[in-house]
Design goal:
Blueprint: H1 16-49, H2 56-69, H3 71-95, H4 100-122, H5 135-156
Helix pairs in contact: 1-2, 1-3, 1-5, 3-4, 4-5
Amino acid sequence: MMRMKADAGHDAPTPRWTRRAGVLLLAWVLAAAWGSVVQTHWNLQALVDVGVNIPATDWWRVIGQDLIGFAPLYGGILAAGWVIALPVASGLARWWPAARSALLGLAAGVGMVAAVRAVDAVAPMPVFIDATRGLPGLLAMAAGAVLAGWLYARLSAR
């Protein structure tokens, strides 16, 4: 049996699952970074509100530190919510393909909120992420997850 060599000018198409995994990773990183920046802003703004002067250079330094230190932890929380929510939304999208982007966006946001609330239920402090203590902060963080879920739906549909 003779093996055929791939033509050097043409690459084999990327398997669909690897493209989807790459797009999902991109969406996950976006949501984790968004949430990290939101919670950093939320915390720094609370300090400013009580009279602490925080120079812009310190704001940027803290945002960078939180992207390195907090975003991976928050990414794990996101993943825990998404591992349930996104497959459910994908299943529903088979019945309603026109709503796929909306379903995946909504599922990403709901999964994030459910995961954060689950962590809050077991964490020793009142809330694990202060920005999610109230509805405005929770919605600001969820907006990043919704955007990431919508982006995943749009980019993985191609």
